[in-house]
Design goal:
Strand content: 15-25%
Helix content: 25-40%
Strand order of the largest sheet: 1-2-3-17-4-18-22-20-21
CATH superfamily of the largest domain: Zn peptidases
Structural class: alpha/beta
Distance between the termini: 72 Å
CATH architecture of the largest domain: 3-Layer(aba) Sandwich
Number of strands: 24
CATH class of the largest domain: Alpha Beta
CATH topology of the largest domain: Aminopeptidase
Largest sheet: 9 strands, mixed
Number of domains: 2
């Protein structure tokens, strides 16, 4: 009597398996490299070990490189260790030469001399090294309910509620009128104090629950506690002075500890950044959770690729711009003429008095540029945010961005790029947002406006623009190898 039930169950199971397999097959076909699986499946033991090793280096980098200033400082130190020397105007770059050029300590360019002359074009790789964060206003200090707080502004797109109740560090610099500079880095070491923006407890937040998601915490409410009070005044002549506020205590503390007065904060670049350390995520340790992966992931991968280069076909110009997340118009941002000015200087050092402006425009026209920025990957909690057939998946490699509407590279340049990646065995996939539902900007438009063939790359990252984003170690390695392949492809 039970056989019909068993037969029915078997048939149902087979049908379910067929449906499941067809769905998985459709999902797997989102990759374009032929294997159509996560690269963790396709990779051999050595590749997996290399991805894990590179991931450790990446975590070390992210822990240190919390802002543009800190990133450039770390990169210059590591560039020197890799044989790069400072480039000065007038220095001719010859095949195999390795130079770096800092732009005001907030942006950086690496130069590797190629076999062909610069007048025949260069290979440009561009990424940005700023990330969403909070910044101190010019007059930040104020007191409220016995606490001392800092007034902040925000840099880049953020969801404000994500910045409460997490440990924050204050990093940056203060420049004084006499020309001295004070570097500030408080909160990243275990012995340092941290700072925090307090949220309301669920017991007393009833009046705030009707706010929209983006307004749960207003931008003007993102003010961290930096001291509590009141404090007792110093003992003078054996007698304690009167109590004074936390704000007054902070002013004395800044002056006594750092030599900073309140007016000096006007000429300061101080940021509040998440203080959490980068960590492996998941039992299999394939993922990395860390602050600042948009877009220091791309910068790290590009830097590592540069260190591996010897003598590329054309001179490689690998640039790390400041302020892509906002304020591109300043001198260290992506809209500055710094990059094309530098290429013009390199060309002038090569041809001397024969230099003419058309030589530069022709060199730019003959160049190839790669603009890199991370993308949001398919989120397992909310996969419907993407159209699955054209969405990037963690572990599947580089994503070539195909946004349409005039943002794509031309078809022949995409084909050339595919050949470069496939020739080097680099896994890749494509990325297109849901039509009319999402968007984002890259450095590509800043390069294309100089008539340079430009293509946008990226790798998928979960929770970008949050205090703690998630990347895949295999994708970090794929991006490093992809940058190298782009530069070395004939």
């Amino acid at each position: 009597m039970r056989r019909p039930f068993i037969l029915t169950a078997l048939i149902a199971s087979a049908l379910a398996a067929t449906v499941t397999n067809s769905v998985l097959s459709a999902q797997d076909n989102t990759c374009n490299q032929g294997t159509c699986t996560s690269h963790w499946v396709a990779a051999n033991t050595a590749e997996k070990a290399n991805a894990a090793k590179l991931g450790e280096s990446y975590k070390t980098f992210l822990h240190e490189a919390r802002t543009e200033l800190l990133t450039v400082t770390a990169m210059i130190r590591d560039a020197k260790a890799a044989g790069f020397k400072p480039w000065t105007p007038g220095t001719r770059v010859r095949a195999g030469d390795r130079y770096y050029r800092s732009n005001r300590g907030r942006a950086l360019t690496l130069i590797i001399g190629g076999k062909a002359p610069i007048k025949t074009g260069v290979r440009i790789v561009a990424s940005h090294i700023d990330s969403p964060r909070l910044e101190l206003k010019g007059r930040p200090l104020y007191g409220k309910s016995g606490f001392a707080l800092f007034q902040t502004n925000y840099h880049g797109g953020i969801k404000t509620y994500q910045w409460t109740n997490i440990p924050l560090a204050i990093v940056g610099r203060v420049d004084k009128k006499d020309g001295t500079r004070i570097d500030v880095n408080i909160g990243l070491q275990e012995s340092d104090p941290i700072f925090m923006i307090p949220d309301l407890a669920p017991h007393v937040d009833g009046a705030f629950r009707n706010r929209k998601q983006r307004d749960v915490i207003a931008h003007e409410e993102l003010d961290p506690i930096i001291a509590s009070g009141p404090h007792a005044a110093q003992v003078v002549g054996g007698k304690a002075g009167a109590k004074y506020s936390a704000g007054d205590w902070i002013l004395d503390h800044l002056k006594d500890t750092y030599g900073i007065g309140s007016a000096d904060l006007v000429s300061a670049e101080l940021s509040l950044v998440p203080a959490m350390k980068p960590r492996d995520m998941g039992f299999d340790r394939r993922l990395i959770a860390a602050y600042g992966q948009d877009d220091r992931l791309s910068a790290f991968a590009s830097f590592k690729a540069a260190a591996m280069l010897e003598t590329p076909p054309q001179t490689a110009v690998i640039t790390f711009a400041d302020n892509e997340e906002g304020g591109n118009v300043n001198v260290t941002g992506a809209s500055s003429t710094y990059l094309t000015d530098l290429i013009g200087e390199l060309l002038y050092a090569e041809v001397g008095d024969k230099y003419r402006q058309p030589l530069l425009t022709r060199a730019l026209r003959a160049s190839k540029a790669l603009s890199i920025d991370v993308n949001g990957g398919i989120n397992p909690i909310s996969p419907a945010a993407w159209e699955a057939g054209n969405a990037p998946r963690l572990g599947f490699g580089i994503n070539i961005k195909l946004y349409g509407r005039g943002f794509d590279a031309n078809s022949e340049y995409i084909a050339w790029t595919r050949a470069a990646l496939d020739g080097a065995g680099v896994p890749w996939q494509t990325t297109t947002y849901k039509v009319g539902r999402a968007g984002g900007g890259t450095l590509g438009r800043e390069l294309a406006r100089y008539n340079i063939d430009t293509i946008d790359f990226g790798v998928p990252v979960l929770s970008i623009h949050t205090p703690y984003a998630v990347s895949d170690k295999m994708d970090v390695m794929a991006l490093r190898n992809g940058v190298k392949a782009f530069i070395e492809h004939p």
